[in-house]
Protein backbone atom coordinates (compact mmCIF):
# COMPACT_ATOMS: atom_id res chain seq x y z
CA UNK A 1 0.00 0.00 0.00
CA UNK A 2 1.37 3.46 -0.90
CA UNK A 3 1.87 5.91 1.91
CA UNK A 4 -0.80 8.64 2.00
CA UNK A 5 -0.02 11.94 0.34
CA UNK A 6 -1.69 15.31 0.56
CA UNK A 7 -2.71 16.52 -2.93
CA UNK A 8 -0.40 19.11 -4.47
CA UNK A 9 -3.06 21.81 -4.13
CA UNK A 10 -2.14 21.94 -0.42
CA UNK A 11 -4.16 23.58 2.32
CA UNK A 12 -4.91 27.26 2.76
CA UNK A 13 -3.52 29.08 5.76
CA UNK A 14 -5.29 31.96 7.49
CA UNK A 15 -3.79 34.94 9.32
CA UNK A 16 -7.02 36.46 10.69
CA UNK A 17 -10.01 35.46 12.77
CA UNK A 18 -13.67 36.05 11.96
CA UNK A 19 -14.87 38.25 14.82
CA UNK A 20 -18.14 40.15 14.83
CA UNK A 21 -18.67 39.64 11.12
CA UNK A 22 -15.24 40.97 10.11
CA UNK A 23 -11.81 39.46 9.57
CA UNK A 24 -9.52 40.82 12.27
CA UNK A 25 -5.89 40.35 13.23
CA UNK A 26 -5.66 38.16 16.33
CA UNK A 27 -4.86 39.78 19.67
CA UNK A 28 -2.08 37.28 20.36
CA UNK A 29 0.67 35.65 18.35
CA UNK A 30 -0.04 31.97 19.07
CA UNK A 31 -0.60 29.83 15.99
CA UNK A 32 -2.41 26.55 15.46
CA UNK A 33 -0.16 24.38 13.34
CA UNK A 34 -2.19 22.15 11.03
CA UNK A 35 -0.53 18.74 10.71
CA UNK A 36 -1.68 15.92 8.45
CA UNK A 37 -2.72 12.91 10.54
CA UNK A 38 -2.03 10.78 7.47
CA UNK A 39 1.56 11.85 6.79
CA UNK A 40 2.54 13.77 9.94
CA UNK A 41 3.58 16.67 7.68
CA UNK A 42 2.88 20.32 8.38
CA UNK A 43 0.12 21.62 6.11
CA UNK A 44 -0.43 25.19 7.25
CA UNK A 45 -1.42 27.38 10.15
CA UNK A 46 -4.21 29.55 11.49
CA UNK A 47 -4.24 31.99 14.44
CA UNK A 48 -5.20 30.59 17.82
CA UNK A 49 -7.89 32.64 19.49
CA UNK A 50 -7.05 34.21 22.83
CA UNK A 51 -9.20 35.44 25.74
CA UNK A 52 -8.89 38.95 24.32
CA UNK A 53 -10.33 37.75 20.98
CA UNK A 54 -13.19 36.08 22.84
CA UNK A 55 -13.89 39.29 24.76
CA UNK A 56 -14.07 41.21 21.48
CA UNK A 57 -16.36 38.59 19.93
CA UNK A 58 -18.72 38.49 22.93
CA UNK A 59 -18.83 42.29 23.10
CA UNK A 60 -19.76 42.42 19.41
CA UNK A 61 -22.44 39.74 19.89
CA UNK A 62 -23.77 41.48 22.99
CA UNK A 63 -24.08 44.81 21.19
CA UNK A 64 -25.66 43.19 18.14
CA UNK A 65 -28.23 41.50 20.35
CA UNK A 66 -28.96 44.34 22.78
CA UNK A 67 -28.89 47.23 20.29
CA UNK A 68 -28.76 45.74 16.81
CA UNK A 69 -31.46 44.87 14.36
CA UNK A 70 -31.00 41.07 14.28
CA UNK A 71 -33.29 39.96 17.15
CA UNK A 72 -36.16 42.09 15.89
CA UNK A 73 -35.61 41.43 12.20
CA UNK A 74 -38.60 40.09 10.32
CA UNK A 75 -38.34 36.27 10.60
CA UNK A 76 -38.80 36.00 6.84
CA UNK A 77 -35.64 38.07 6.36
CA UNK A 78 -33.69 35.93 8.83
CA UNK A 79 -34.93 32.88 6.96
CA UNK A 80 -33.75 34.35 3.66
CA UNK A 81 -30.28 35.00 5.07
CA UNK A 82 -30.04 31.47 6.47
CA UNK A 83 -30.74 30.13 3.00
CA UNK A 84 -28.06 32.44 1.60
CA UNK A 85 -25.56 30.89 4.02
CA UNK A 86 -26.57 27.41 2.83
CA UNK A 87 -26.02 28.44 -0.79
CA UNK A 88 -22.60 29.87 0.02
CA UNK A 89 -21.61 26.69 1.86
CA UNK A 90 -22.75 24.62 -1.11
CA UNK A 91 -20.43 26.64 -3.34
CA UNK A 92 -17.52 25.80 -1.04
CA UNK A 93 -18.22 22.11 -0.42
CA UNK A 94 -15.34 20.92 -2.64
CA UNK A 95 -12.79 23.11 -0.84
CA UNK A 96 -14.20 22.34 2.60
CA UNK A 97 -14.17 18.62 1.80
CA UNK A 98 -10.54 18.75 0.73
CA UNK A 99 -9.55 20.77 3.80
CA UNK A 100 -11.32 18.48 6.25
CA UNK A 101 -9.85 15.33 4.71
CA UNK A 102 -6.36 16.86 4.82
CA UNK A 103 -6.51 18.21 8.37
CA UNK A 104 -8.56 15.49 10.13
CA UNK A 105 -8.12 12.42 7.92
CA UNK A 106 -11.76 11.64 7.17
CA UNK A 107 -12.20 9.70 3.90
CA UNK A 108 -13.41 11.90 1.05
CA UNK A 109 -16.95 10.53 0.84
CA UNK A 110 -17.50 11.01 4.57
CA UNK A 111 -15.94 14.46 4.50
CA UNK A 112 -18.18 15.58 1.65
CA UNK A 113 -21.25 14.26 3.47
CA UNK A 114 -20.33 16.30 6.56
CA UNK A 115 -20.01 19.53 4.56
CA UNK A 116 -23.35 18.89 2.86
CA UNK A 117 -24.90 18.26 6.28
CA UNK A 118 -23.73 21.73 7.29
CA UNK A 119 -25.65 23.35 4.45
CA UNK A 120 -28.66 21.18 5.20
CA UNK A 121 -28.93 22.47 8.78
CA UNK A 122 -29.15 26.07 7.59
CA UNK A 123 -31.97 25.29 5.14
CA UNK A 124 -33.79 23.07 7.63
CA UNK A 125 -33.85 25.81 10.25
CA UNK A 126 -35.00 28.34 7.68
CA UNK A 127 -37.94 26.04 6.99
CA UNK A 128 -38.65 25.66 10.71
CA UNK A 129 -38.47 29.41 11.16
CA UNK A 130 -40.99 29.93 8.35
CA UNK A 131 -43.43 27.66 10.20
CA UNK A 132 -42.79 29.10 13.67
CA UNK A 133 -45.66 30.67 15.61
CA UNK A 134 -44.06 33.36 17.79
CA UNK A 135 -47.22 34.20 19.74
CA UNK A 136 -49.97 31.91 20.97
CA UNK A 137 -53.11 32.68 22.89
CA UNK A 138 -53.48 30.82 26.18
CA UNK A 139 -56.58 30.37 28.31
CA UNK A 140 -56.30 28.58 31.64
CA UNK A 141 -59.83 29.03 32.91
CA UNK A 142 -59.17 31.59 35.63
CA UNK A 143 -57.12 33.73 33.27
CA UNK A 144 -55.91 34.27 29.73
CA UNK A 145 -52.94 35.78 27.96
CA UNK A 146 -50.39 35.52 25.19
CA UNK A 147 -47.35 33.28 25.23
CA UNK A 148 -44.42 34.79 23.31
CA UNK A 149 -41.22 33.17 22.07
CA UNK A 150 -38.30 35.58 22.31
CA UNK A 151 -34.65 35.04 21.37
CA UNK A 152 -32.57 33.90 24.31
CA UNK A 153 -29.55 36.18 23.84
CA UNK A 154 -25.84 35.69 23.15
CA UNK A 155 -25.02 32.03 22.48
CA UNK A 156 -21.60 30.41 22.78
CA UNK A 157 -21.13 27.24 20.75
CA UNK A 158 -18.22 24.86 21.32
CA UNK A 159 -17.72 22.16 18.71
CA UNK A 160 -15.40 19.15 18.37
CA UNK A 161 -13.11 18.30 15.49
CA UNK A 162 -14.84 15.17 14.20
CA UNK A 163 -17.42 17.10 12.14
CA UNK A 164 -16.95 20.78 12.95
CA UNK A 165 -18.78 22.50 10.11
CA UNK A 166 -21.86 20.30 10.55
CA UNK A 167 -21.76 20.59 14.33
CA UNK A 168 -21.35 24.37 14.28
CA UNK A 169 -24.22 24.61 11.80
CA UNK A 170 -26.43 22.35 13.92
CA UNK A 171 -26.02 24.89 16.74
CA UNK A 172 -25.57 28.21 14.97
CA UNK A 173 -28.37 27.92 12.41
CA UNK A 174 -31.20 27.46 14.97
CA UNK A 175 -29.67 30.07 17.29
CA UNK A 176 -29.61 32.63 14.49
CA UNK A 177 -33.06 31.59 13.31
CA UNK A 178 -34.38 32.35 16.79
CA UNK A 179 -32.79 35.82 16.69
CA UNK A 180 -29.76 35.10 18.90
CA UNK A 181 -26.20 36.17 18.17
CA UNK A 182 -23.41 33.60 18.23
CA UNK A 183 -19.76 33.20 19.18
CA UNK A 184 -18.47 29.84 17.91
CA UNK A 185 -15.29 28.21 19.20
CA UNK A 186 -14.29 25.23 17.08
CA UNK A 187 -11.53 22.88 18.23
CA UNK A 188 -7.87 23.41 17.43
CA UNK A 189 -7.96 20.35 15.19
CA UNK A 190 -9.70 20.90 11.87
CA UNK A 191 -9.77 24.72 11.93
CA UNK A 192 -9.35 25.40 8.22
CA UNK A 193 -12.72 24.01 7.11
CA UNK A 194 -14.45 26.08 9.82
CA UNK A 195 -12.79 29.30 8.65
CA UNK A 196 -13.81 28.53 5.07
CA UNK A 197 -17.35 28.26 6.43
CA UNK A 198 -16.85 31.69 8.04
CA UNK A 199 -16.17 33.02 4.54
CA UNK A 200 -19.51 31.57 3.45
CA UNK A 201 -21.28 33.32 6.33
CA UNK A 202 -19.57 36.60 5.47
CA UNK A 203 -20.57 36.27 1.81
CA UNK A 204 -24.21 35.69 2.81
CA UNK A 205 -24.35 39.22 4.25
CA UNK A 206 -25.32 38.73 7.89
CA UNK A 207 -25.21 41.97 9.90
CA UNK A 208 -22.07 43.01 11.77
CA UNK A 209 -21.61 41.54 15.21
CA UNK A 210 -24.00 38.63 14.74
CA UNK A 211 -21.44 35.84 14.15
CA UNK A 212 -17.88 35.14 15.28
CA UNK A 213 -15.82 31.97 14.64
CA UNK A 214 -12.68 31.71 16.77
CA UNK A 215 -10.71 28.42 16.73
CA UNK A 216 -8.91 27.94 20.03
CA UNK A 217 -7.93 25.51 22.75
CA UNK A 218 -9.58 24.39 25.96
CA UNK A 219 -8.46 27.28 28.16
CA UNK A 220 -9.93 29.83 25.77
CA UNK A 221 -13.08 27.73 25.62
CA UNK A 222 -13.38 27.97 29.39
CA UNK A 223 -13.04 31.74 29.13
CA UNK A 224 -15.92 31.82 26.63
CA UNK A 225 -18.14 29.49 28.68
CA UNK A 226 -17.58 31.55 31.83
CA UNK A 227 -18.00 34.94 30.13
CA UNK A 228 -20.69 37.02 31.85
CA UNK A 229 -21.88 38.28 28.47
CA UNK A 230 -22.92 34.79 27.33
CA UNK A 231 -26.54 33.76 27.99
CA UNK A 232 -26.39 30.15 26.72
CA UNK A 233 -23.72 27.59 25.96
CA UNK A 234 -24.27 24.81 23.43
CA UNK A 235 -21.46 22.30 23.84
CA UNK A 236 -20.51 19.07 22.10
CA UNK A 237 -17.63 17.06 23.49
CA UNK A 238 -16.61 14.65 26.20
CA UNK A 239 -18.64 14.02 29.33
CA UNK A 240 -15.72 15.21 31.48
CA UNK A 241 -15.63 18.53 29.63
CA UNK A 242 -19.43 18.75 29.80
CA UNK A 243 -19.29 18.61 33.59
CA UNK A 244 -16.86 21.53 33.54
CA UNK A 245 -19.21 23.51 31.27
CA UNK A 246 -22.02 22.98 33.77
CA UNK A 247 -19.80 24.16 36.62
CA UNK A 248 -18.85 27.35 34.80
CA UNK A 249 -22.44 28.11 33.83
CA UNK A 250 -23.95 27.33 37.22
CA UNK A 251 -22.83 30.53 38.93
CA UNK A 252 -24.88 32.74 36.65
CA UNK A 253 -27.55 30.14 35.75
CA UNK A 254 -26.59 30.33 32.09
CA UNK A 255 -28.61 27.99 29.89
CA UNK A 256 -26.83 24.91 28.58
CA UNK A 257 -27.30 22.25 25.94
CA UNK A 258 -24.82 19.39 26.23
CA UNK A 259 -24.22 16.64 23.68
CA UNK A 260 -21.64 14.40 25.31
CA UNK A 261 -20.15 10.93 25.13
CA UNK A 262 -21.66 7.58 24.34
CA UNK A 263 -21.17 3.85 24.62
CA UNK A 264 -24.07 2.75 22.48
CA UNK A 265 -25.28 -0.83 22.27
CA UNK A 266 -26.57 -2.81 19.30
CA UNK A 267 -28.82 -5.73 20.27
CA UNK A 268 -28.87 -8.56 17.71
CA UNK A 269 -31.99 -10.71 17.92
CA UNK A 270 -31.77 -14.38 16.96
CA UNK A 271 -34.24 -14.10 14.08
CA UNK A 272 -32.23 -11.85 11.75
CA UNK A 273 -29.62 -13.19 9.26
CA UNK A 274 -26.17 -11.64 9.53
CA UNK A 275 -26.07 -10.50 5.91
CA UNK A 276 -29.07 -8.24 6.49
CA UNK A 277 -27.28 -5.99 8.96
CA UNK A 278 -23.54 -6.69 9.01
CA UNK A 279 -22.35 -3.88 6.66
CA UNK A 280 -24.37 -1.28 8.54
CA UNK A 281 -23.22 -2.58 11.91
CA UNK A 282 -19.57 -2.35 10.84
CA UNK A 283 -20.01 1.21 9.60
CA UNK A 284 -21.90 2.15 12.75
CA UNK A 285 -19.12 0.83 14.94
CA UNK A 286 -15.91 1.91 13.23
CA UNK A 287 -16.95 4.55 10.65
CA UNK A 288 -14.84 7.74 10.84
CA UNK A 289 -12.30 5.51 12.60
CA UNK A 290 -14.71 5.22 15.52
CA UNK A 291 -14.43 8.93 16.27
CA UNK A 292 -18.21 9.34 16.59
CA UNK A 293 -20.10 9.89 19.84
CA UNK A 294 -23.01 7.70 18.71
CA UNK A 295 -20.83 4.80 17.49
CA UNK A 296 -22.19 1.31 18.16
CA UNK A 297 -19.26 0.10 20.25
CA UNK A 298 -21.07 -2.62 22.23
CA UNK A 299 -22.58 -5.45 20.17
CA UNK A 300 -24.91 -7.69 22.19
CA UNK A 301 -25.63 -11.15 20.79
CA UNK A 302 -27.08 -14.36 22.22
CA UNK A 303 -24.77 -17.05 23.54
CA UNK A 304 -25.71 -19.41 20.72
CA UNK A 305 -24.76 -16.92 18.00
CA UNK A 306 -21.79 -15.25 19.67
CA UNK A 307 -18.99 -17.19 18.00
CA UNK A 308 -20.58 -17.00 14.54
CA UNK A 309 -21.09 -13.24 14.80
CA UNK A 310 -17.55 -12.69 16.04
CA UNK A 311 -16.22 -14.66 13.08
CA UNK A 312 -18.33 -12.65 10.62
CA UNK A 313 -17.44 -9.29 12.15
CA UNK A 314 -13.75 -10.19 12.33
CA UNK A 315 -13.74 -11.00 8.62
CA UNK A 316 -15.48 -7.71 7.83
CA UNK A 317 -13.02 -5.74 9.97
CA UNK A 318 -10.06 -7.45 8.32
CA UNK A 319 -11.43 -6.60 4.87
CA UNK A 320 -11.87 -2.89 5.71
CA UNK A 321 -9.41 -0.77 3.76
CA UNK A 322 -7.38 1.52 6.02
CA UNK A 323 -5.13 4.16 4.51
CA UNK A 324 -4.93 7.31 2.45
CA UNK A 325 -8.16 9.26 3.06
CA UNK A 326 -7.83 10.85 -0.38
CA UNK A 327 -8.08 7.41 -2.01
CA UNK A 328 -11.76 6.85 -2.89
CA UNK A 329 -11.36 3.16 -2.01
CA UNK A 330 -10.34 3.92 1.58
CA UNK A 331 -12.94 3.17 4.25
CA UNK A 332 -10.98 4.30 7.34
CA UNK A 333 -8.43 7.06 7.61
CA UNK A 334 -6.16 7.85 10.55
CA UNK A 335 -7.08 9.05 14.00
CA UNK A 336 -7.03 12.81 14.33
CA UNK A 337 -3.89 13.19 16.43
CA UNK A 338 -0.98 11.27 17.89
CA UNK A 339 -2.38 11.66 21.40
CA UNK A 340 -5.65 10.10 20.23
CA UNK A 341 -3.80 7.13 18.75
CA UNK A 342 -1.90 6.75 22.02
CA UNK A 343 -5.18 6.80 23.94
CA UNK A 344 -6.71 4.11 21.73
CA UNK A 345 -3.61 1.93 21.93
CA UNK A 346 -3.84 2.20 25.72
CA UNK A 347 -7.34 0.74 25.56
CA UNK A 348 -6.14 -2.07 23.30
CA UNK A 349 -3.63 -3.08 25.95
CA UNK A 350 -6.24 -2.63 28.67
CA UNK A 351 -8.68 -4.93 26.87
CA UNK A 352 -6.07 -7.66 26.65
CA UNK A 353 -5.18 -7.28 30.31
CA UNK A 354 -8.87 -7.52 31.27
CA UNK A 355 -9.13 -10.90 29.56
CA UNK A 356 -10.88 -9.93 26.34
CA UNK A 357 -9.83 -11.75 23.16
CA UNK A 358 -8.64 -9.80 20.13
CA UNK A 359 -10.60 -11.27 17.21
CA UNK A 360 -9.42 -8.73 14.63
CA UNK A 361 -6.88 -5.91 14.51
CA UNK A 362 -5.29 -4.92 17.78
CA UNK A 363 -2.50 -2.55 16.69
CA UNK A 364 -1.08 -0.32 14.01
CA UNK A 365 -1.27 -1.36 10.35
CA UNK A 366 2.11 -2.80 9.41
CA UNK A 367 2.05 -1.21 5.95
CA UNK A 368 1.41 2.33 7.23
CA UNK A 369 4.56 3.38 9.12
CA UNK A 370 3.64 7.06 9.04
CA UNK A 371 0.43 8.63 10.20
CA UNK A 372 -1.75 7.99 13.23
CA UNK A 373 -3.47 4.83 12.04
CA UNK A 374 -5.00 2.07 14.14
CA UNK A 375 -6.41 -1.19 12.78
CA UNK A 376 -10.14 -1.72 13.20
CA UNK A 377 -10.20 -3.88 16.30
CA UNK A 378 -12.78 -6.39 17.51
CA UNK A 379 -12.78 -7.70 21.08
CA UNK A 380 -14.65 -10.92 21.88
CA UNK A 381 -15.43 -12.57 25.22
CA UNK A 382 -16.13 -9.15 26.71
CA UNK A 383 -18.18 -8.66 29.86
CA UNK A 384 -19.96 -5.45 30.69
CA UNK A 385 -17.82 -4.79 33.78
CA UNK A 386 -14.67 -4.40 31.68
CA UNK A 387 -13.48 -0.86 31.12
CA UNK A 388 -13.39 -1.40 27.35
CA UNK A 389 -17.15 -2.02 27.58
CA UNK A 390 -17.88 0.94 29.85
CA UNK A 391 -15.62 3.80 28.75
CA UNK A 392 -15.76 5.78 25.53
CA UNK A 393 -12.65 4.92 23.54
CA UNK A 394 -13.29 7.13 20.49
CA UNK A 395 -11.42 4.87 18.12
CA UNK A 396 -12.16 1.92 15.79
CA UNK A 397 -12.72 -0.55 18.65
CA UNK A 398 -15.86 -2.66 19.11
CA UNK A 399 -16.68 -5.16 21.87
CA UNK A 400 -18.98 -8.18 21.49
CA UNK A 401 -20.90 -9.26 24.60
CA UNK A 402 -23.07 -12.33 25.21
CA UNK A 403 -26.59 -12.36 26.57
CA UNK A 404 -28.73 -15.29 27.74
CA UNK A 405 -32.10 -13.81 26.78
CA UNK A 406 -33.47 -10.48 25.58
CA UNK A 407 -34.30 -9.29 29.07
CA UNK A 408 -30.63 -9.61 29.92
CA UNK A 409 -29.72 -7.88 26.66
CA UNK A 410 -31.81 -4.86 27.66
CA UNK A 411 -30.28 -4.89 31.14
CA UNK A 412 -26.76 -4.91 29.69
CA UNK A 413 -27.57 -2.14 27.23
CA UNK A 414 -28.96 0.02 30.04
CA UNK A 415 -26.11 -0.77 32.43
CA UNK A 416 -24.06 2.21 31.32
CA UNK A 417 -23.33 5.75 32.42
CA UNK A 418 -24.25 6.78 28.89
CA UNK A 419 -27.46 6.83 26.88
CA UNK A 420 -26.89 8.53 23.55
CA UNK A 421 -27.89 6.06 20.84
CA UNK A 422 -28.45 2.40 20.11
CA UNK A 423 -29.85 -0.09 17.63
CA UNK A 424 -32.08 -3.15 17.59
CA UNK A 425 -31.60 -5.63 14.75
CA UNK A 426 -34.53 -8.03 14.37
CA UNK A 427 -36.74 -9.38 11.60
CA UNK A 428 -39.74 -9.13 13.92
CA UNK A 429 -40.38 -5.39 13.93
CA UNK A 430 -42.87 -5.62 16.79
CA UNK A 431 -40.16 -7.25 18.87
CA UNK A 432 -37.65 -4.61 17.79
CA UNK A 433 -40.02 -1.81 18.70
CA UNK A 434 -40.81 -3.27 22.10
CA UNK A 435 -37.10 -3.62 22.90
CA UNK A 436 -36.39 -0.07 21.71
CA UNK A 437 -38.97 1.31 24.15
CA UNK A 438 -37.06 -0.30 27.02
CA UNK A 439 -33.68 1.19 26.13
CA UNK A 440 -32.65 4.26 28.15
CA UNK A 441 -31.21 6.24 25.27
CA UNK A 442 -31.93 9.43 23.37
CA UNK A 443 -32.39 7.59 20.08
CA UNK A 444 -32.75 3.95 19.12
CA UNK A 445 -32.69 2.75 15.52
CA UNK A 446 -34.61 -0.26 14.28
CA UNK A 447 -32.44 -2.25 11.85
CA UNK A 448 -30.17 0.69 11.20
CA UNK A 449 -27.88 3.26 12.77
CA UNK A 450 -26.40 6.67 12.09
CA UNK A 451 -27.52 10.23 12.76
CA UNK A 452 -30.82 12.02 12.32
CA UNK A 453 -30.58 15.32 10.46
CA UNK A 454 -34.14 16.55 10.86
CA UNK A 455 -35.09 15.18 14.27
CA UNK A 456 -33.99 15.80 17.87
CA UNK A 457 -30.61 14.36 18.83
CA UNK A 458 -29.27 14.07 22.36
CA UNK A 459 -28.83 11.71 25.24
CA UNK A 460 -29.97 10.34 28.55
CA UNK A 461 -27.81 10.20 31.69
CA UNK A 462 -24.20 11.35 31.19
CA UNK A 463 -24.68 11.63 27.43
CA UNK A 464 -25.99 15.14 27.87
CA UNK A 465 -28.82 17.59 28.41
CA UNK A 466 -31.34 18.87 25.88
CA UNK A 467 -31.77 18.10 22.20
CA UNK A 468 -30.32 19.45 18.96
CA UNK A 469 -31.97 19.30 15.55
CA UNK A 470 -35.57 19.56 14.44
CA UNK A 471 -38.17 21.77 16.14
CA UNK A 472 -36.81 20.86 19.58
CA UNK A 473 -33.38 22.16 18.59
CA UNK A 474 -34.86 25.49 17.51
CA UNK A 475 -36.97 25.80 20.65
CA UNK A 476 -33.79 25.56 22.76
CA UNK A 477 -32.81 29.09 21.70
CA UNK A 478 -36.00 30.83 22.83
CA UNK A 479 -37.20 32.13 26.16
CA UNK A 480 -40.96 32.11 26.69
CA UNK A 481 -42.80 35.08 28.11
CA UNK A 482 -46.40 35.05 29.26
CA UNK A 483 -48.28 38.34 28.91
CA UNK A 484 -51.26 38.02 31.23
CA UNK A 485 -54.37 39.76 29.96
CA UNK A 486 -56.76 38.64 32.65
CA UNK A 487 -56.30 36.53 35.73
CA UNK A 488 -56.72 36.30 39.45
TrEMBL record:
Record's signal peptide: none
Gene3D superfamilies: Aldehyde Dehydrogenase, Chain A, domain 1, Aldehyde Dehydrogenase, Chain A, domain 2
Family annotation (SUPFAM superfamilies): ALDH-like
Methyltransferase listed as a keyword: no
CDD domains the record matches: ALDH_AldA-Rv0768 (cd07139)
Catalytic-site annotation from UniProt: 259
Protein's name in the database: Aldehyde dehydrogenase
